[in-house]
What we know:
GO terms for molecular function: transferase activity. By secondary structure, this protein is α+β, with helices and mostly antiparallel strands. 52% of the residues lie in helices and 12% in strands.
Amino acid sequence: MFEERMGRARALNKGIRNAKGEIIAVTDSDCIAHKDWLENIEKKFGKKSVVYAGGEILAYKPRTLVEKYSEKAGILSARTVLKKNIFYPPFFQTANAAFRKSLLDEIGLFDEALVSGHDADIGWRIQWKGHGIDFEPSAVIYHRNRTTMKGLFEQFKRYGLSRTALFKKHRKMLKAFFHIDFVNIGGIFYALLQIIPSLILGRTELERKKPILDFVKRSAFLYGKILGSIKNKVIEL
């Protein structure tokens, strides 16, 4: 099947509407699934209480410095996304997620109005309805990270933009009029302080340039959130 309209959420929804099974597993077009991925993620649904699950996302053959940095930082890793956040709930990225179709009938499909962040949106909506989230580390998907510093910047700028749209949509459930991520902002200044010492003392290229890449990543995220806050008329920094 083919979805003529642009947008990942629209393509996912078309697949879901045409699916015949009870378990809906999704991944992205730029991903490579481990040969046991479907079998392992299906096992998680052996318990009837499991309605929303996901597996691990690993870096695919990192070659460039930025790819190696992204692998070490756990960018896109489910373990990173699932780390406890005092403000935002966890979720599974659409690179590696699965749902009971009956759950999607209950809460609705992916929000096609969102340019990005539809995976977080559906994960949060599931949890607002009182359902749990189940991680299956043996269900593995491989994903190639951004290869250049510019690509890393654009990736996190997009994350920042989508975060503001998500905040606007969910702030009633989040019980907040505004949100400021002091961890990310503090990380920008910490990275700046580490640049010169790391360039002098770092033993490998990655050690020497990690603070620069940290600065690019965190600054891009903040920049995206500033742009998104203006666009969506919210304060999410």
